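Think of the structure tokens as a kind of shorthand, similar to the way a musician reads notation: each symbol stands for something richer, in this case the local conformation of the backbone. In the example below we present two proteins back to back. Begin with the first one, reading the sequence and then the tokens, and try to describe in your own words what changes along the chain.
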Amino acid sequence: MNGWLLAAALLLVVGFAPTVWGAASGPVRRRVMAQNLATLAGCLIMLLLAQGFARPSYVDLALVLAVLGPAGTLVYGRLLADELTGRPARDRVARALDRAMTPLAVIFVPLVVLPLCVAAGPGRAMAKLLVVGALLVGGNVVSTRVLSGRHAPGREAGAADD
């Protein structure tokens, strides 16, 4: 076992397992936020496994997950808009996830992607890693904004309430 696989195993236990628990239990807001965080952790795990097993095709899977994960969260945000924006989060875990999701993405994505870029060296592989990192951070920022209720899906800015 090399260091990349050890980091992937650690992230699997510390990052992915609690998000699976959060997605399987609790109110709707916590479930959707945990699903969004699980996408982030799963993508980072795939990147670490790609380097650990020397399988560049795993980076392609992480790229697809980085695109589809936040899109899925936005779909859930649209379909569950009444439950997500109708009342404030009373659940302590959901409030903590709401405050921590963007900082987690901004901190952990570079902690994983930058060492992988150094290991990959300049070239196409590094460009893919940087694109995945940018998609993860950008997608997490947008989906967190929707889930936190700061932006109600389907409503125009400044539209009057009926």
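Once you have a description of the first chain, move to the second and do the same.
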Amino acid sequence: MFLPKYPDSPTPPPAHTHAPTDPMPARRAAPQLSITTGAVAAVIVGGVVLTALLAAVAVAAISVAVAAVVLRSMLRDYHTRR
């Protein structure tokens, strides 16, 4: 049903009769990038450390904010009683 139909007599590809006027410059091989397991481990450890530092800063900021709200409330109550 979906079989390709091939020509009865294959024709050869046309011969290339002229030389290129401007040959392409030779390509250099791209340098191979080798990633070692040490580099991968360093990136992962660095990411974990930075994430932990970010979490520590966030927790410290939240605790300072809560302490500020509590102190403000206590000072407001102190000033209203006097």
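Compare your description with these statements about the second chain. The CA atoms of residues 68 and 74 lie 10 Å apart.
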